[in-house]
Amino acid sequence: MGILARMAGRIGNIVGKIRGGGSSLPGYLALKIEPDFLDKIVFPKEVILVTGTNGKTSVTNMLAHIYKSAGYNISTNAHGANILQGIATVALNDSNSKGVIEKDVAILEVDEGYLPIIMKQVKPTSLIITNLFDDQADRFGSKYQLAEKIFSSIPEDISLYINGNDPILVNMSRLLSNRKTKYYGIKLEGAQCHGEPCPSCGELLWYTNHHYDQLGEYNCPCGFKNPDYDYFASDVDLENNRFCFGGTGIRAEIRALYEIYNMVAAMTVAVDRGIEENTVSRAIETWTPISGRLESIKWRGKDTWINLVKNPAGFNATLELLRREEKETYSLVVAVNNEPADGVDTTWYEKISWDNIINTPIEGVFVTGSAMNEMIEVLRAKGFKTEGFSLQEDLTIVDRIGSKPVFLANYTAMSSVKNWISKNNQQ
Ligand SMILES: [Zn+2]
Fold first, then answer.
1. CATH code where residue 301 lies
2. Stated pTM of the model
3. Which helix (H) or strand (E) holds 46?
4. How far, in Å, is the centroid of ligand 1 from the Cα of 168?
């Protein structure tokens, strides 16, 4: 492998450390000098890629935790550097001078837009797809277009792990033969309703249980329905933090259904790849959520929480949680930027189901971030009491928030909001 690319990467590492952050700079520089840099890396025998709109960082992180608990040496991008430069950085940091990654397994989160090109260079043995929702339309198009792009690029000799509660994924995966496809899912008791269009015939799907967005338990007169699951969660009890997986009861810090989706995805792959079930369930019970993902925090002595919300599906799952859990008066603090990493298009704010929380004891919504005005416009149209503020300049806001604030932030807004919280907690 090219010495120059490797040297450039080393320099990138040093610069990154001095500047703080800059986590993908080494890979960026290595690819500048050698565009086919990743082709020359010898990856471990087992390479597991995780993609999808929501949950990929958590699933990657959980899977890495399970493999480590089982005694494996792993190579992973646990910090979400999931585009080409990020993968190249992992390869650079974890390989020896001959370009060989001497680990048992690589577990890599991959951006859904970059998946086709990364699969060509990294040659995965397994691929997990968590879900596909509308997200960053300027980059991905619709969820249907994205599904076609992804599924047309999946190589033949791969083990596929598919969320069977997502009709879009299930429909596409049926069109692929020759793949070792395993389905995972969640089985719930619940209300019946019509939902999304059937991806096979276009009629409305009948949901015997609608989880959120297009996810759920569905069937259609044309015969399209959930596949038989190879692995699934049942007896879900969010109040008491538990569910069943196979024959095993799992107790873990869970508040939202999507957290169970993430756990089931990671456990499915680990068990299916041969890790002992006991080790898997013990590991998942001791997994600590990533900072900012439904994280419990203190705000001026009160217990509250913060969550990452970066697209309508994630937002709606969070509002559903508010509707179910918040019985006391609360306020929302929403931080939204429209940087390239968030998607500059803000029209998706209109797809958020704010009606979900209109009857909860909410006092008001405080909005900040570079896309504040776009969000305020949507909230006002829905009838919420709303005001904007600046994290840097507005000193009276802390007192005006009043009741318990629940914090929601999108991708690039998360760290500035968390800094702001810890600063104001100390006063
Ligand atoms: Zn149908």
1. 3.90.190.20
2. 0.86
3. strand 46-51
4. 12
